[in-house]
Amino acid sequence: MGCAISGLAAKPEFGEKNTEAATAAHLSEDQIQMIKESWKVIRDDIAKVGIIMFVRLFETHPECKDVFFLFRDVEDLERLRTSRELRAHGLRVMSFIEKSVARLDQLERLEALALELGKSHYRYNAPPKYYSYVGAEFICAVQPILKERWTAELEEAWKTLFLYVTGLMKQGYQEESNRHRHLAASPKERPDKKNTAL
């Protein structure tokens, strides 16, 4: 495929102790500026990047298609490239990335955004094991667009951002999972419901 990237997809399994969310504190001002400057170029091809990103995701990790009801049985990658549904989903993901970039100077807003996205992914039954793949495919998709602007430093900045965001998404997923488990517990098993009948 031409894009050999490491550092995003090989993360601790969900539920293991990880410190991905802490990596945002390690985004330097220079890295934030690099991300913002590169985004100005990337956003001109936002739909193209979204499609490339997901077609590559399904090529490199076909098991990810199981999460997407509409694409589960599609084997023809050319059909995926022209799919209106895939384009729409790619644009939603790119919109999230755009919002993330815009909130790099407001980490509490970025944190709330990513936590909420993780919670919604629980409701869509999209497990955390796939989150890091999207960042890796995004990086592969934008390299040809950025051409000579692409550097090892810029790649490291984007990786750091994706590690941060996916760490928060995993946290949001876990919070939503815990909430649903709590709601499903019978009243006498719930810690907030005390048995008062004596």
Structure description:
The protein is mostly helical. Helices cover 60% and strands 0% of the residues. It has seven helices and no strands. The protein has helices spanning 29-42, 46-60, 77-81, 84-102, 107-123, 131-146, 152-184. Helix 1 crosses helix 7 (152-184). The relative contact order is 0.18.
Summary of the model, kept short:
With 198 residues, the protein is mainly α. It is 60% helix and 0% strand.
Name the features.
198 residues; mainly alpha; globular
Number of strands: 0
Please give the largest β-sheet: none
**Structural class of the secondary elements?**
mainly alpha
Low-confidence stretches: 10-21
Question: Element order, helices and strands?
Answer: HHHHHHH
Strand content: under 5%
Radius of gyration: 19 Å
What's the average pLDDT? 84
Large-scale geometry: globular
Helical coverage, percent range: 55-70%
Count of individual helical segments: 7
Alpha-carbon distance between the two ends: 68 Å
